[in-house]
Amino acid sequence: LKQPGSERSGAQGRDIEEDGEGDGAVPKAGVSFLKKKTSVMFDASADEGQHQHNDRRMSTLTVRPIWQPAVGEEIKDMTSKKRKGKSIWQEVPEDGPSLGKTETDPIQSTAGMDRFASHPNNQFNFYCDIVCMLCIGYDMIMVPVAVFQPEETRFLAVLHLFTTVFWTVDFMRHFSRGYYVEGEVVLSFNRIAKRYATTWALPDCAILLSDWAFSIITYSNNSQANQSNVGRLLRLTRNIRSLRLIRGIKTGHLLKIIEDRIQSEALAVLWTTVKLFMCILFINHWSACIWYMIGIHLKGEMPNWVEAYLSEHYSGDAFHYQYLTSFHWALTQFTPASIEVQPLNSYERLFAICLLMFALVTVSTFVSGITSAVMQLRQLHSVRSKQFWMLRRYLFEVGVPTQLAVRINNYCEHAWRVRGRKMQEK
Fold this sequence. Notes:
This protein is mainly alpha-helical. The chain has helices spanning 123-145, 154-173, 189-197, 201-219, 227-240, 251-260, 265-297, 305-310, 319-334, 346-397, 402-421, and strands at residues 41-43, 60-62, 179-181, 184-186. The protein is flat and about 85 Å long.
C-alpha cells in the first residue's frame, strides 16, 4: 500500500493464513502494514455461496479513501490458486477527506483572503478584548462626566486620542476575526466581513467619525473669529459622542470571554464579586451625573439643588466638589445613609422617586449576589482549613517535635497547592 503523493512503502506485507474446517474457520487477511500508524477496517463476512466448496476463505479488507495501490503492486491471492473477483481497492476521490479532517475543524474556504482571518480565541484577540473592556470602562466614566464640564487636561487629551486610535484599529480587526456558529469556528473572510457589516459595522463607523471630528476640531488651530463656530461644533460633536455608550452592549460578550480563561474556582467566585461591585459603582456614577444634569438645566428657571446647595459653598464651582456631592446623593438612594441635599422641584422629585424604585429592586439582587459569592468562597477555604487544623492537632497529640511538625505542615501545603492545580479523576 502507498499513500497518495508519497513514495512506495519499504516494508512489504506478510500473508497470514489459518486453516479451518467448514464455517468455523477464523478468517485472516493479507495486509501490508506501513510504518505510519493508521486504522483499517476488516469485514470478515465472506460470500458463502461463492466459496462453499473451499476450505479456506479470505476476509475482505476495506481500505479508506486516502489509500491507493502502489505503482506496479500485484495483489496475490490467499490461496494457491488465483481467484477472480472485484478489486478490494477503492478509488480516491479528488476532494476526498484527509487524515487530519475532523468534524470539529473550522469552517474555512480556500479563498486567498482567508489567510488574514484569525481565530476568535487566540492570544492577540484575547488581549485586544481586555483593552476593549478598559476603553469601554473609560467611555462609561468620561461620557457622563461631560455634564460637569471638567477642565480639559493633557492627560485626558492623550487618553481620548489613544481610545480613538484603538477603536479605529479594532474596527478593522473585526473584519477578520472569526466567530462561532453552532459550536463551529467560521474562518471564512467573506462570511466574517459580511456578518460584521450587517451587525456592528455601521454604529462603530458613526462613532469613529464623531470621535475623529471631535479630535480634529479640538486640536486644530482656529482664528479668533471662528471661535463661536468652533464652540458650536464642539458641543455638537460632544453630544454625538454619547453614542459611545452603545458599546456597553458588548460588555457581556467580553466578560464571557474573560470568564472562559479563568481556571481557578476561587478566582471565578472573586471575579463574580468584583463584577457585581463594579456594576453598583457604575449605576451610582450614572445616577450622580443625571442628578447634576437635571439641576444645572433648571438653573435660573426654578429652584434647584445646584443653586441651593452648591452656589453657597466656597468650593461649589470646583468640579471635584460638584461630582462628589452628586455621587454622595446617589449613594444615599441605594443605602440607608442620608445627606442634606434634597430635591426642590417636581423634576428632581420625580427622578428621586424613580431612582428609589429602581434601587428597591436592584440593590437587594446585587447584595444577595455578593453575599452568595462570599459564602461560596468561604466554603472553598473551609475544607482546607479544617484538614490542616486536624493535621496540626494530630502532630501535637502524638508528640512530633515542633521543627518537624512545621516541615510536615509546609510540605502538605505545597502538596495541596499542586493538587489544586489539576483536576482529579476521582
